[in-house]
DNA sequence: CAGTTACGCTACGACTCGTATCGAAAGAGT
DNA sequence: ACTCTTTCGATACGAGTCGTAGCGTAACTG
């Protein structure tokens, strides 16, 4: 064993340039052809690589597309501090909606999820490459809201995790359904109404989960509000 | 023109028996093969009809599958009066989750939606065969909640329609995302928490639609909650 | 230098697609 | 009865895709 690390250190390294060309070609092909008519041969031709190279790096169309869209998510989702939980939610909703307007993501996202219902490895890849990565937005938004006093601090970390999961499913699921199933626009007005719903709903569930109804949080206009009163519940 | 109606009345009629056999075969094939490996030839063989017969009635795999799953939705979604808005939401959430546990719907629903992003005719078919049909549950639940006093009566019918759309996207989208993307169980506990969120959120948005961004709703423990108080607020 | 791995290219069998063709079958209208 | 119209089953077809195998070459390591 010449090397203690498990990374391969010998032989010709994989061309990172080809990697980028393939993912770019995949996104371009998604725009032009959509998921259904996208083929591995087509991507290989666009990226100017051999078809065998594709299969050496990705098991199939699904895995390739997951990686291709994951890049877009990383680059186009952020959570700047807009001063209030309501504004933060509104911002990320509009960002996510803009992402779903893109032809690449629109046609690819649902398709890979559909495939993942019968392919556990693919499901894990989606989770690690997209879902878990973007869940950071929820965690960050929660922390900020707690610092502002809009949400109580976490009594139980496991409860906090499940709440974050709920919020993520709530926002991502509703926006996706509105944009792709109902096929109606996610405009500023809808985002505002929905954000109000989210904030009120989340505050309500926070009080209900800790057996005691310690909610009673005040509405926070986007300005200086005094954080304080983290609502330490006596718990069990 | 021998007949005033536009229905064709001459010639051999299409076998309704074959129609049923085809849809049954489609559902069976979805269970065994999933969306990806399902082929028209396979369905034809299972239904014991010629492949040409399939293409005479459906344009392709997507249209066929939409009709096949639409039947399941009609037969397994109902809204019995459980006495409160919270309980009604909880019930439909669990019903919908059970539907998404079925292999047929799980693998087909996302796939056809993905295809519909590039096929407007298919999107309309999904809307009329599934979405619009199940939206009745939301409208019915709203009416009952209004009769109980849990929700205010509609001032503007157009606002009522958009609220119903929001609630539909909210519930269907979140449950789908939880079940298929996050791949976590929609159990009774999750349904209860989510229903609390929905009820509180909806009540909050009802007061807020009139330009004012007021919230200040009280936490509602999941049981007998006193209706009334649609949150009439003194604006800004 | 030798060793190892990635690459481009080609070819391959298996499969699916959607359509065309044809004769036979099943109802409607007279 | 008869004809007209439409559907049905069966088969065959060219086109396209799939994923893999083979082989010689290129690139990097020690």
Give the secondary structure arrangement, pairings included.
Two copies of one chain form a homodimer.
Chain A: H1 16-37, H2 40-47, H3 51-57, H4 61-76, H5 85-101, H6 103-116, H7 120-148, H8 157-181, H9 188-209
Chain B binds a DNA duplex (30 and 30 nucleotides) through residues 2-3, 8-15, 18, 39-41, 49-53, 55-56, 60.
Q: CATH superfamily of the domain at 60-209 in chain A, please? A: Tetracycline Repressor, domain 2
CATH topology of the domain at 60-209 in chain A: Tetracycline Repressor, domain 2
Oligomer: homodimer
**Low-confidence parts of chain A:** 1-5, 209-236
Using the alpha-carbon principal axes, give the shape of chain A. Answer: elongated
Fraction of helical residues of chain A: 55-70%
Strand content of chain A: under 5%
How many helices of chain A in DSSP terms? 9
Major sheet attributes of chain A: none
Strand and helix order of chain A: HHHHHHHHH
Largest interface: A-B, 61 and 62 residues
Describe this protein with a few key phrases:
homodimer; 236 residues; mainly alpha; Tetracycline Repressor, domain 2; 9 helices; elongated; disordered C terminus; DNA-binding
Characterise this structure.
With 236 residues, the first copy, chain A, is an all-alpha fold. Chain A is built from nine helices and no strands. In chain A, helix 1 (16-37) crosses helix 6 and helix 5 runs antiparallel to helix 7 (120-148). Chain A starts with 15 loop residues before the first helix and ends in a 27-residue tail after the last helix. Chains A and B meet through helix 1, helix 6, helix 7, helix 8 and helix 9 of A and helix 1, helix 6, helix 7, helix 8 and helix 9 of B. Chain B binds a DNA duplex (30 and 30 nucleotides) through helix 3.
């Amino acid at each position: 064993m010449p090397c203690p690390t498990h990374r391969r250190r010998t032989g010709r390294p994989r061309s990172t340039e080809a990697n980028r060309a393939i993912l770019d070609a995949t996104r371009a092909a998604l725009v032009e052809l959509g998921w259904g008519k996208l083929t591995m041969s087509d991507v290989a031709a666009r990226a100017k690589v051999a078809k065998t190279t594709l299969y050496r790096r990705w098991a199939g169309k699904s895995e390739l597309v997951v990686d291709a869209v994951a890049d877009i998510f990383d680059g186009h989702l952020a959570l700047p501090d807009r001063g209030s939980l309501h504004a933060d939610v509104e911002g990320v909703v509009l960002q996510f909606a803009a992402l779903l307007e893109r032809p690449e993501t629109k046609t690819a996202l649902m398709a890979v999820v559909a495939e993942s219902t019968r392919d556990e490895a693919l499901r894990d890849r989606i989770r690690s490459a997209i879902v878990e990565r973007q869940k950071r937005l929820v965690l960050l938004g929660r922390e900020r809201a707690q610092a502002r006093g809009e949400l109580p601090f976490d009594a139980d970390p496991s409860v906090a995790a499940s709440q974050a999961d709920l919020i993520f499913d709530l926002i991502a699921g509703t926006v996706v359904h509105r944009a792709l199933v109902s096929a109606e626009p996610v405009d500023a007005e809808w985002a505002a109404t929905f954000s109000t719903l989210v904030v009120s709903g989340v505050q309500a569930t926070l009080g209900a989960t800790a057996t005691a109804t310690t909610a009673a949080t005040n509405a926070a206009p986007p300005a200086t509000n005094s954080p304080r009163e983290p609502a330490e519940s006596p718990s069990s």
